[in-house]
Design goal:
This protein has about 110 residues and is mostly helical. The chain is built from 6 helices and no strands.
Length: about 110
């Protein structure tokens, strides 16, 4: 799949700050919006694994991407981890969204 101008822009910014969670998240969302859920899942997985502090929105988006890919066990695992991260961050809204999505799977 061809890279969009936005993807190229984000990747250029990531060369200056390769660990910026907001940029990584934006890159994942750009891939998802282009229908490239497999790449989006990989970017989100790396973001979750490498972030210095949990980037809570990445967990919900990863769960949604995994569901679209038919990877329910991965969705369940990332949503459970996300619920814990959201609770620790005091992000009740994200926690509720992830609990709701998880309930549709289990």
């Amino acid at each position: 799949m061809a890279k969009t101008a936005r993807m190229q822009q984000i990747e250029a910014m990531l060369t200056d700050d390769p660990h910026d969670p907001f940029l990584r998240y934006g890159l994942a969302m750009e891939h998802a919006s282009q229908g490239d859920d497999e790449t989006a899942a990989g970017v989100l997985r790396e973001l979750i694994a490498n972030a210095q502090e949990p980037y809570v929105p990445a967990y919900l988006q990863a769960g949604q991407v995994y569901m679209r890919l038919g990877r329910e066990p991965d969705a369940v695992a990332v949503l459970r981890a996300g619920i814990i991260a959201a609770r620790a961050a005091g992000n009740d809204h994200a926690m509720g969204e992830m609990q709701g999505l998880l309930a549709t799977i289990e």
